[in-house]
Amino acid sequence: MNYRHAYHAGNFADVVKHALLTLVLAHLKKKETPFCVVDTHAGVGRYDLAGTEAGKTGEYRDGIQRLLESGPGPALLADYLAAVAAVNGGGPRLRFYPGSPRIARFLLRPQDRLALVELHPTDAAALKREFAGDRQVGVHVQDAYTALKALLPPKERRGLVLIDPPFEAKDEFRRIVTGLTEACKRWPTGIFGVWYPIKAPDPVDRFLGEMAGLGRPCLAAHLFRFPADGPERLNGCGLAIINPPWKLDEALAGLLPVLAERLAATGGTELRWLARPDHSAE
Questions:
Q1: What is the count of structural domains for the chain?
Q2: Active site residue 164
């Protein structure tokens, strides 16, 4: 309950996570039928980069600011950069950074829906203010993994669950796998995206092995900001995607190197299937 994302908003990990998020949402928008996005660790929705918290760390300077200063983005970044511009009045000045709720809301169509889950009381109150009066957005003040049981499957039957914990709990990887085991049973056709930090490699490798054993297609995308440099440093981040959209792997293969170059990430990138789709019935 002590983690506050305002200190880290717009950093390199946010850029990776949110750029990939927009690719999944673009896929869902290809069909006219409605979809639902469930964000299990929603935060406050938008962050003031001129605020005290962001000013103390300045992490956004090596993230979204560096990306914007690197020149026009490729087409794969268009939705993401448009969402960033939208919370800044549509202009080039960078004052605010959109969290995943704001990015998802920017990309929703009138028939789509957003369910936001936040346990921290102060952040939940801010989230409610951010989306007050928005009939397409619901805010749920509860534990993320309890919410998975309550909110799945959504009535739309199509959509995405984004799981983005602060990783304060030492057993967070275990909690994710336990929650996903039940969630995949409740909604076997849903897309699940899980963000995770990369520090020491062994916990991440164990987690990815368990993700591979869930019995669903799963793709992992990694960006390493630095070469491995000790278990306490945030050396990189990853996003594991269960039931990834068709050809998402091809889009990520094109996007990850661009992000690495523009964010000056010297550790490289990695894209691998943890469990491949079974096309034998096709």
A1: 1
A2: yes
